[in-house]
Amino acid sequence: MQNLNDEQNGEAWHKLTDEQKQDLIISYEESFDPANMVSHAQVKASHKEWLEM
Questions:
Q1: Do 51 and 44 contact (CB within 8 A), yes or no?
Q2: How many domains does the chain divide into?
Q3: Is the alpha carbon torsion for 37, 38, 41, 47 positive or negative?
Q4: What is the secondary structure of 8-29 as a DSSP string?
Q5: What is the pTM for the complete model shown?
Q6: 2 confidence band (pLDDT: 50, 70, 90)
Q7: Which of 47, 10, 17, 20 is nearest to 2 (CA)?
Q8: Which candidate, 17, 23, 25, 40, has a CA 20 to 30 Å from the CA of 33?
């Protein structure tokens, strides 16, 4: 996540509190855990009403 700050102007990052930054970093790291993944089929089933447009 810090790389985003380095590669872009970082305005949004700098507006976050330290607690918000830490929460974002934790969420980002947890997003790589396979136990937190949702299958494509589950997402399609959950959002079926919007996908039928």
A1: yes
A2: 1
A3: negative
A4: S--HHHHHS-HHHHHHHHHHHH
A5: 0.58
A6: low
A7: 10
A8: 17
Cα–Cα distance for residue pair 43/14, rounded to 1 Å: 33
Name the residue among 49, 2, 40 with its Cα closest to residue 22: 2
pLDDT band at 7 (very low <50, low <70, confident <90, very high): low
From CA 10, how far away is CA 2, in angstroms rounded? 9
Q: Which helix (H) or strand (E) holds 52?
A: none
Q: Tokens 């997402």 map to which residue?
A: 43
User: For residue 24, what are the domain limits?
Assistant: 2-51
CA atoms within 13 A on the CB side of 36: 8
